[in-house]
UniProtKB/TrEMBL annotation:
Keywords assigned by UniProt, alphabetized: Ribonucleoprotein, Ribosomal protein, RNA-binding, rRNA-binding
Record Pfam families: Ribosomal_S5, Ribosomal_S5_C
Organism: Sphingomonas tagetis
Subunit structure: Part of the 30S ribosomal subunit. Contacts proteins S4 and S8.
Function: With S4 and S12 plays an important role in translational accuracy.
Designated name of the protein: Small ribosomal subunit protein uS5
Gene of this entry: rpsE
Entries under SUPFAM superfamilies matching the protein: dsRNA-binding domain-like (SSF54768), Ribosomal protein S5 domain 2-like (SSF54211)
Lineage summary: Bacteria, Pseudomonadati, Pseudomonadota, Alphaproteobacteria, Sphingomonadales
Length: 240
């Protein structure tokens, strides 16, 4: 009889064990339900991440939603010798433009190349300048720029000439939106000095429209053709 009682009680205990586990599972289910709500919270964090992305996209919105042309001109690696060995750093020179008459340059330093390029690009976007272009393809007049040991000469060119420039100067004109120009660099080949000399020459560019407004005259009079029909047509074609 004792054996029968034990045999009868064992299934009861076995049955009780799952029942006891069921409430724990239920509580666990409620506990997991909480994290399930947490999953919604994680979704909220993802949404917050989306807001962060929109925040990072803010600088792009400052540019009016325009797609900018970014040109990496030069990467320089430097090292510092310390007790444990060498520490390497990178310096990046970047040119940014919209291809429609606005261009800027900047440089950044960091331990990693991507971070240095990001810093240089951000600096270039902050220092963008507008340069007047003739017919949207070339410069209005010749110019010279000087910085340090670098001297550059810029000349306007007829349609079909192309960009006759090398190295850093080509990156500037491609970002600016110039299609026809002839340049010459004399002196140093340091990209930093060449870029600064080129921007100095571009800063001296003026359009007939700006000069006419400053002097209180008509554009046709400035062209030296006495207000002829050809001069008036050419003046009407000048937008900047």
């Amino acid at each position: 009889m004792a054996d029968e009682i034990n045999t009868t009680e064992a299934p009861v205990e076995a049955a009780a064990a799952p029942d006891a586990g069921a409430p724990r599972g239920g509580r666990g289910g409620r506990g997991r339900g909480g994290p399930g709500g947490g999953n919604n919270n994680r979704g909220g964090r993802d949404n917050r991440g989306g807001r962060d992305n929109r925040g990072r996209g803010g600088p792009g919105n400052d540019d009016g939603g325009e797609e900018l042309i970014e040109k990496l001109v030069h990467i320089n690696r430097v090292s510092k010798t310390v007790k444990g060995g060498k520490r390497f750093g990178f310096a990046a020179l970047v040119v940014v433009g919209d291809g429609k008459g606005r261009v800027g340059f900047g440089h950044g330093k960091a331990r990693e190349v991507p971070e240095a390029i990001s810093k240089a690009t951000a600096a270039a976007k902050k220092k963008m300048v507008r340069v007047p272009l003739r017919e949207g393809r070339t410069l209005h007049h010749d110019g010279q720029g000087h910085f340090g040991a670098g001297l550059v000469t810029l000349r306007s060119a007829p349609a079909g000439t192309g960009i006759i420039a090398g190295g850093p100067m080509r990156a500037v004109f491609e970002s600016l939106g110039v299609h026809d120009v002839v340049t010459k660099s004399v002196g140093t080949s340091n990209p930093y000095n060449m870029i600064r000399a080129t921007f100095e020459a571009l800063g001296d560019q003026t359009s007939p429209k700006a000069v006419a407004q400053r002097r209180g005259k008509k554009i046709a009079d400035l062209l030296g053709r006495g207000g002829s029909q050809a001069a008036e047509a050419e003046a009407a074609a000048i937008t900047e």
